[in-house]
Structure formats: structure tokens, C-alpha cells
Design brief:
Layout: H1 11-21, H2 27-34, H3 38-54, H4 66-84, H5 97-113, H6 118-131, H7 157-171, H8 178-188, H9 196-209, H10 213-227, H11 229-237, H12 246-258, H13 262-275, H14 279-291
């Protein structure tokens, strides 16, 4: 991973190349992680290979690894995300557990090897907090269970404790970064009653450091919890660039339902279903659509399939 993260390549090219050649993810899975067409990722990888070849870049690991730590964290985070929530119906389950656990193992090794890079510790905390919920994330039929509805007695408390330990060590370096903020958000969700106003403030801080539409959507969801569905819907409607992202439509469907706008809610659930590939998530969406008075399969056959 450190070899592929050559600083002469653009950061996105470094990440795509590493995920494909070392991380074992397919081009389609990488594209899903980036929310871009598969052809875009394929072109990035081809261009990166060509640049390495034409420029005769030495594939060696430098003595100073700090310049490659950020890309390494991004790569490990995306590998974990694919393990935490598989982006393909071929997975057959919500989680690719072995991949998620491998990402945690590698992140722990990286954090130990680079103690002056607290973002790796922040990432490790994020991974541990999320992974701790595994036993509660689906019901007996394999259907996704939202975080708010999960049986917290099923959470792995030793993993939660490891997450707090990793976060504490990272924050002690006093070099706050995006992964540490995401860890603070995940830590807040370990409370029986999360402070949603605090979570909104964390997202404001995160967006100031690492702006992006998915973080903006997550902030909008937090706003709906802190300030009500009307404010949340307004925040969601301000998010750009996620028209093909199923979680945007699922979030809008939920708040529209709370506002009594049933027809619009059903339309959003249907759209979410067409964009969802994971069978566990798709079963969840189908159930919500049925509850909203719609037909789960009225848009054609729907196969059974981070965020909800």
C-alpha cells in the first residue's frame, strides 16, 4: 500500500490504484465507494499505471512515511467501508466480515507503526465503533436494522472500549483531523441518547476540513434529529451531487413520511430501491415502502439486498 501511494500521482489515482492492486477491490466496488461511474475509476488506474511506467517512478518505500499516511488512511478506510457494507448484491449479506476485520488489523498495524500520525488512530476508532455493532445490524431474516432500532446489548463492548482507547490516544496528539472527527461522531452514537446538536456541530467541523456531499447528507440527517424533519428536509434538499445515491432518497423518504407527505415518501422509497444493491438494505427499503402503502416490487423485479 505504501509503494502504490507515490506522491507523484494525484491522490485519487493513488487511492484507486492501491485499492485495485493491493486492496483486492474490483473496479466496480471502487467506483461505488467514490460514487462515480466505473469507467472513471478504470481510467484513473490506467493513467496511474502509465505514469509510473513512462516516468520510471521508483517503487520504493521512503524513510519518511508521513507524506503517504493520508492516502494510506483513505485506502484503509475505503476497504473497511466495503467490508462494513458490501456494495454488490453478489455479497449476499450486509457485511463482508473478513474484509472489515482485515482492514481493522491493517489499520492497527499502521497506527502502531506511525504513532505521529493521529489520523490513523482516528480511523481505527471509527472502524472499531462501527464493527462493534455487527451482531445487532440485521434481524433473524438478515434484514438491516437501523442504528436507532438496534439491540445495544448485542454490541461488542470490548470493541467499543478499544475504540475509545484509540480515539483518546489520537486526540492526545492535538492534531485534529477528519478521521478523528468522524470517530467523535461514532463515539457519540455509543450513548443511549446521542446529543444530536453536538453531532451537527461535529459535522460542521468535519465539513470545514473535508467538504463533501456524503458528509453534508449525514449532517442533514443529524439536523432532522436535532431540529425536526422540516429543518432536516431543507438541509437534505441543499445537498448536491447525490442524485444516484440511495441513502439520500432513503433519508428523504423517512422525513417526508414524518411530515405526512406519504405519496412523496413512497416515491423516494421506490427510487432508493432502484439504486440499492445490497440484499439486506434492499429488504429494509422494501419493508419501508410496504409500510408507506406502496408495493415493494411495483417498479419491476427487485432482488433481495452504511448508512441506514
Amino acid at each position: 500500500m505504501l509503494l502504490c501511494g507515490h506522491p507523484a500521482l494525484a491522490p485519487d489515482a493513488q487511492v484507486a490504484l492501491t485499492l485495485r492492486l493491493v486492496g483486492g477491490l474490483t473496479t466496480a466496488e471502487i467506483a461505488s465507494a467514490y460514487l462515480v461511474p466505473e469507467a472513471t475509476i478504470a481510467q484513473r488506474i490506467v493513467r496511474a499505471k502509465r505514469k509510473i511506467r513512462d516516468a520510471h517512478m521508483p517503487l520504493t518505500i521512503p524513510a519518511d512515511l508521513s507524506e503517504r499516511a493520508a492516502v494510506l488512511a483513505t485506502v484503509l478506510g475505503l476497504i473497511f467501508n466495503e467490508g462494513y457494507l458490501a456494495h454488490t448484491e453478489l455479497a449476499g449479506t450486509l457485511t463482508r466480515a473478513a474484509l472489515a476485520d482485515q482492514a481493522i488489523r491493517l489499520t492497527a498495524v499502521a497506527a502502531d507503526a506511525l504513532p505521529d500520525e493521529p489520523e490513523l488512530g482516528g480511523l481505527l476508532a471509527v472502524e472499531l465503533f462501527h464493527r462493534s455493532r455487527e451482531a445487532a445490524r440485521t434481524d433473524t431474516d438478515g434484514v438491516l436494522v437501523r442504528l436507532v432500532d438496534q439491540d445495544r446489548a448485542l454490541w461488542d463492548r470490548s470493541m467499543v472500549a478499544r475504540g475509545f482507547e484509540a480515539l483518546s490516544l489520537a486526540l492526545a496528539r492535538r492534531q485534529l483531523g477528519p478521521w478523528q472527527i468522524q470517530a467523535l461522531i461514532a463515539a457519540e452514537h455509543t450513548r443511549d441518547q446521542p446529543d444530536w446538536a453536538r453531532i451537527v456541530r461535529y459535522y460542521d467541523l468535519l465539513l470545514g476540513m473535508a467538504p463533501g456531499p456524503v458528509a453534508a447528507l449525514n449532517r442533514a440527517v443529524a439536523v432532522s434529529e436535532a431540529d425536526g424533519p422540516t429543518a432536516g428536509l431543507a438541509a437534505m434538499d441543499a445537498v448536491l451531487g447525490l442524485g444516484e445515491y440511495h441513502l439520500l432518497h432513503a433519508a428523504r423518504a423517512h422525513v417526508l413520511g414524518l411530515l405526512g407527505r406519504a405519496a412523496e415518501s413512497r416515491a423516494e422509497w421506490r427510487l432508493a430501491a432502484t439504486l440499492t444493491q445490497n440484499p439486506s438494505e434492499l429488504a429494509f427499503v422494501a419493508a419501508r415502502l410496504a409500510e408507506a402503502g406502496g408495493e415493494p416490487r411495483d417498479q419491476g423485479p427487485v432482488p433481495f439486498g452504511r448508512g441506514f
